[in-house]
Amino acid sequence: MKIAFFDAKKYDTPAFNEYAEMGGVTVKYFETRLNEDTVELAHGFDAVCVFVNDTVNAAVIDRLISFGVKAIALRCAGFNNVDVKHAEGKIAVLRVPAYSPYAVAEHTMALLLTSIRRIHKAYIRSRDFNFSLAGLTGFDLHGKTVGIIGTGRIGRVFAHICEGFGMHILAYDRYPDMSLEKSGSVRYVPLDTLLAESEIISLHCPLTEDTYHIIDEAALAKCRTGVVLLNTSRGALVDAEALLSAIKARRVGAACLDVYEEEGDLFFEDNSGHILEDDTLARLISMPNVIVTSHQAFLTKEALENIAETTIGNLLTLFDTGKCENEVHYNA
């Protein structure tokens, strides 16, 4: 089996080389992203492996099929960048539903602690031998109310972490995990209640038509003044313009973002020598109460190994049996 691996980074290759060799698979790495201009590179391959910012629209899918490509293997959980409806019945779309929920949940807590304890500011000061404590006052997490939107694998792990800090945990999910509520540490509430009562809100849900801009101007208006917003899930869950306005109006006390709605041409690349043309992102980054990381929540050794193992395993299973439990289907 030959795989065309798009948007390849140096941290991808060690684990994928290991599991590809074990499975007798040949991988060709391309640094470029998959899109209508680069799809010709997939000619002669049995499958393509793509990531969150590759474009797998109808035109790309049709070209892949014409080349004889049998599968699109996502090395991530989300698949909103793939036209699954167009692919249904024509080419298999596989994903990695869970690689390391601990990686993302722990990064979320790291962002929260960094923000509320001003660790990022203290680090910069101490590098200049400035050991003043002025302006570094934070607050305890113990006893605070956190609202978790989405209680899948990552949301549940984040809830357990918050429980360890002695926080009160509210949750919202269209499909509640009642075993989580029965544990006594989490209380499911309507979304409006979560927005109104939470001092900290963390997003852990997939991007769908229902969750697109779930945090918009109207939602932010329902939040407590000074709320801390965390998003390590999908950028388009948050209306960035509305968030920026709420920060400027002092309604949002802090924001920690590992994802951004228009990250496609920016994240995973070194843009330090260029002028940032995205004015909204530039303003967010300039805010003293905003922390932005570049979609790195998943980036742990354990997660990369799990991603590689599952991705290669998905393809081997599909080609051996004609089906795979991690195949994505379009639900009309």
Task: Explain what the structure shows.
With 332 residues, the chain is of the alpha/beta class. It is built from twelve helices and twelve strands. The chain has helices spanning 13-23, 58-67, 84-87, 101-116, 119-127, 153-164, 178-182, 191-197, 217-222, 240-248, 279-286, 301-321; strands at 2-5, 26-29, 47-50, 71-74, 92-94, 145-149, 168-172, 186-188, 200-203, 227-231, 252-257, 290-292. It has a seven-stranded parallel sheet with strand order 8-7-6-9-10-11-12, with helices on both faces. A five-stranded parallel sheet has the order 2-1-3-4-5, covered by helices on one side. Helix 7 (178-182) links the parallel strand 7 (168-172) and strand 8. The longest helix is centred in the C-terminal third of the chain and has 21 residues, at 301-321. The protein is globular, with a radius of gyration of 21 Å. The relative contact order is 0.14. The model has no long low-confidence stretch (mean pLDDT 95).
